[in-house]
């Protein structure tokens, strides 16, 4: 997971924990019966659990999408670089072969001139 993904997950966890603590403290200090307060805490805990699952799912999907995009971009770039290198190799190889053939012809011509 990227550094940004870790930061987002940490912030999300902190916000949810803070919200849960605030709700629980508010309910504990509210002037109601203990039974009613416990029921509210249980209900809120269930709500917070559902919210956390939803947020986790959203963050997880975003991370998967970013990974997929980065992976695709990397593959495309690697393929482009490989093709560029191969094209350059082929181009220079042909030039070298051509120049070598020219040099061989020149040397042969010089040798023929020396034989005469």
From TrEMBL:
Transmembrane spans: 12-30
One Pfam family of this chain: YtxH
Protein's UniProt keywords contain Membrane: yes
Entries under InterPro entries matching the protein: Desiccation-related_membrane, YtxH
Keyword Glycoprotein in annotation: no
The entry's keywords: Membrane, Transmembrane, Transmembrane helix
Domain of life (superkingdom): Bacteria
Protein name: Gas vesicle protein
């Amino acid at each position: 997971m990227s550094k940004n993904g870790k930061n987002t997950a940490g912030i999300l966890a902190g916000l949810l924990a803070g919200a849960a603590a605030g709700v629980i403290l508010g309910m504990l200090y509210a002037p109601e019966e203990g039974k009613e307060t416990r029921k509210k805490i249980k209900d809120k805990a269930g709500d917070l659990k559902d919210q956390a699952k939803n947020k986790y799912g959203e963050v997880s999907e975003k991370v998967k999408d970013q990974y997929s995009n980065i992976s695709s971009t990397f593959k495309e770039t690697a393929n482009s670089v490989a093709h560029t290198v191969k094209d350059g190799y082929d181009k220079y190889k042909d030039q070298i072969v051509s120049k070598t053939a020219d040099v061989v012809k020149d040397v042969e011509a010089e040798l023929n001139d020396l034989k005469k």
